[in-house]
Model the fold of this input.
Amino acid sequence: MPNKAVIAGASGLIGSYLLHILLDAEQYSEVLILVRKELPVQHKKLVQLVIDFDKLDEYKAAITGYAVFCCLGTTKKKTPDQNEYRKIDHYYPLRLAQIAKQNGVRQYHLVSSLGADSNSSQFYLKTKGETEEAIKKVVIKSLNIYQPSLLTGDRKESRFGEGFMIGLMKLIDPLLVGGLRKYRSISAETVAQAMFKQSLKTEEGIFVHPSDKIKLLA
Done:
């Protein structure tokens, strides 16, 4: 059963919720977070490892345990250079999965995006799709891929365009029914809860969870 969890992206919207859920969970005795700079969080189960993600291999020995949760991601505004963007959204998650596989980690949980498609003409969705496909080929015992739609929650930085969309979605969400239900906005906390609950299951294989299914898992 679970004992140690590793989170990459614990300072982000989903990752920060997930961190607190795992610290409160009796199923995990240790939570290791891979961070660029130490977070202002203290807990007897928490271990913080400040790393350079460009040199992930140097930290191989620490990336062990039962489950690795990858909540890494960036935005066009924060990372306008596409090469840097792809490094964060593709290379880091993939290399982390490869290391997890080498170290016998049983589960890998990846935050992707609704609409992820390696054949998409949109760079963001294409990158997400290529990352999903590449990590599937790593063949971890249990791979869970989460594809949330527009995320809601308390962000550290405000984004005008996104704030507008969230307000708009509050009006539109009730109208999205049937096959359109997956396009409803979803809270980051709901995604984090679903990731935690999936980590307690023992099924092996590849599981892809679109946004509407994530809400059911939580």
Observations:
- The mean pLDDT is 91.
- The radius of gyration is 17 Å.
- The helical segments are 13-24, 82-102, 123-136, 160-172, 188-199, 211-217.
- The first strand starts at residue 4 and ends at 8.
